[in-house]
Design a protein that fits this description.
The protein is mostly helical. Helices cover about 75% and strands about 0% of the residues.
Length: about 140
């Protein structure tokens, strides 16, 4: 089992697009709150509520990004949307497992959130940052 520490926001994760950066920071807070819940043994109900919150957040966040990318004709829009679809599919799989009562997915869920923050934001979202900034976002 991986040990997760509180995820510290790294300015290198900033896209330079305020609304997107604010939403990324919100995801960081959600992740850190789930670490707190795990470490304080808040349990399965906290995990379920966090996942519900993450799904709602992801839907809003992905719509925000995709609307901006589409509005400004981002050339890799389809690929980025595909990446979002993969993330949502994974979140729905976690939701299915949790709804079946499988509390053992907690560590996997935290690992997934960490990867989303560390990889998707750092490498995928940064790809469009210059493009959107040049478009005036």
């Amino acid at each position: 089992m991986k040990h997760f520490e509180i995820f510290k926001w790294d300015p290198m994760l900033d896209t330079g697009v305020d609304i997107i950066d604010q939403q990324h920071k919100m995801l960081t807070r959600i992740f850190n709150k789930q670490i707190d819940y795990r470490d304080s043994f808040k349990g399965f109900d906290a995990l379920k509520k966090t996942l519900e919150r993450v799904i709602k957040f992801a839907e809003l966040h992905f719509k925000t990004e995709e609307d901006l990318l589409k509005k400004h004709n981002y050339p890799d829009y389809d690929y980025h949307k595909y990446e979002h679809t993969k993330i949502m599919d994974t979140l729905k799989k976690f939701e299915s497992e949790i709804n079946r009562g499988n509390s053992r997915v907690s560590s996997e869920f935290l690992e997934f959130l960490y990867e989303w923050l560390d990889h998707h934001v750092r490498y995928e979202d940064i790809k469009f940052s210059g493009f959107l900034k040049a478009a005036g976002c």
